[in-house]
Amino acid sequence: MTATSTAVTGIGSLVTNDPSFSGADNPLGLVRDAAVVVEGDRVVWTGPSSKAPPTDNRVDAGGRALLPGFVDSHSHLIFAGDRGAEFAARMSGRPYTAGGIRTTVAATRAASDAELGAALDRFLAEALRQGTTTVETKSGYGLTVHDEARALRIAAERTPETTYLGAHVVAPEYADDPAGYVDLVTGPMLDACAPHARWVDVFCEEGAFDGDQARAILTAGAARGLVPRVHANQLTAGPGVQLAVELGAASADHCTHLTGADIDALAGSATVATLLPGAEFSTRAVYPDARRLLDAGATVALSTDCNPGSSFTSSMAFCVAVAVRDMGMTPDEAVRAATYGGARALRRTDIGTVAPGARADLHLLDAPGHVHLAYRPGVPLTAAVWQAGELRWRAGHVTLEGAPGGT
Ligand code: NIG
Ligand code: FE
Fold first, then answer.
1. pTM metric for this prediction
2. Which residues of 375-406 are buried (b: 16+ CB within 10 A; e: fewer)?
3. Which atom of ligand 1 is nearest to the CA of 79?
4. CB under 6 Å to ligand 1: residues?
5. Closest ligand (CA of 163)
6. Sign of CA dihedral 42, 43, 45, 50
7. Chain centre to alpha carbon of residue 82
8. 58-90, pLDDT tens digit by residue?
9. Is residue 310 marked as binding?
10. 74 annotated to bind ligand
11. What is d(CA 117, CA 342) in angstroms, rounded to the nearest whole number?
């Protein structure tokens, strides 16, 4: 028996990120007055509404815009505790440092598995309501073998995109023995974490891990089948980006302080530059220069970095708005980076597009076009969200008779 097919028609403006529609003057592969046909968990057809094939069901989008679900390729959501006071102190002039991470480590260790799982569920639901259908998340607030492994186990029950970040900062117990902590991270901690993780990450930064330590950790992870991604050049122009490119990392994240050589290295590689404007916003720091990266030819992703210390937002729309307003990105570039770019950073081809064969992760906006994500900052525009063909969320004022995956 074939799955029921449903056409969503009357889409005012459809972002496909599909090369069969995109071109130099249409980077998002926009289709006006469009339709999308969904069968089961997949998109099977896209194009002009007037050419939509016959389907079992039909639903009218009422001229709204439809986009691929946001791909949030960088977050830190397995934690407990609150650092609102640290944020307030920062807004009165205190600088952000890597050391704040230890505050969250203490609270996370004290939390039960059930508490951490429930908190993660709340964050994932919060992200979904804002159009995010894929979330990568990291360990890094446990820093013991037991606490890192349980963080990743809890995360892996909810998303396939899990990242081992035992090397977030040196655990407090190893304050006088950083080399001993690197041995732990590359030895017993890696053994316990690798079964629950897809990626390995290091905070390569002053106050965290230097280039040699980062190389040892990423190489050990890679030997266990984990693909590297790197917290690189966030606070200073360190060796992180060059290391990420050299090791074939999927992504170099933050990229706030880059040299010309760093930009050239990213542009000449398959390593995605993942920009996290929430971090600069919440630490009152200078934004990364997205324009230089894009003009050089680098692939750019936008992500929230949602975490309790440096960027406590789950809103990809907010990141798009800031990237457009303050980082030199056009609305088209920012929306592409938040969808297709995130998928590239996770080396996924089934998400980040609305194209035949893609997973039916769809984000309906209560707006005529994607530009409104930046044009109407702070306004909750998400009208409905489908994940793998299932209607997972719908705004109270939106009716969708006959919608794929329910009403
Ligand atoms: O990506 N840079 C390292 N980790 C986080 C901050 C974590 C924290 O302050 O708790 C980040 O910004
Ligand atoms: Fe981060």
1. 0.97
2. eeeeeebbbbbbbbbebbbbeeebebeebbbe
3. 10
4. 76, 100-101, 104, 203, 231, 234, 279, 305, 307-311
5. 2
6. positive
7. 22
8. 999 999 999 999 999 999 999 999 999 999 999
9. yes
10. yes
11. 24
Structure tokens of 206? 């002053």
Beta strands 70-72 and 132-135 are parallel
Lookup: tokens for 274: 């993942």
Instruction: Report the alpha-carbon distance of residue 280 to residue 205 in Å, rounded.
Output: 16
Three-class SS of residue 93? coil
Residue nearest to ligand 1 atom 8, measured at CA: 309
Q: Are 13 and 36 in contact (CB under 8 A)?
A: no
372, 365, 362: which is closest to 334 by C-alpha?
Answer: 372
* Ligand 2 mean position, distance from CA 312 (Å): 11
The encoded tokens of residue 105 equal 């480590």
**Ligand 1 atom at minimal distance to the Cα of residue 253:** 1
308 Cα: distance to centroid of ligand 2 (angstroms)? 10
**All domains of the chain, ordered by start, with CATH?**
5-68+353-394 (2.30.40.10), 70-346 (3.20.20.140)
CA nearest ligand 1 atom 3, residue: 203
Lowest mean pLDDT across 67-81, 133-147, 360-374, 389-403: 389-403
The token pair at 382 is 């998400």
Sign of the Cα torsion 260, 262, 265, 269 reads: negative
Distance 23 CA to ligand 2 centre (A): 33
Ligand 1, atom 9: nearest CA belongs to which residue? 309
What are the residue ranges of helices labelled H in 256-338?
260-267, 277-282, 290-296, 316-326, 331-336
Q: What is the largest CA-CA distance in the chain?
A: 69
Residue 23: phi and psi, rounded to 5, are: -165, -175
**Rounded to the nearest 10 degrees, how much is the dihedral formed by the CA atoms of 306, 312, 315, 317?**
-100
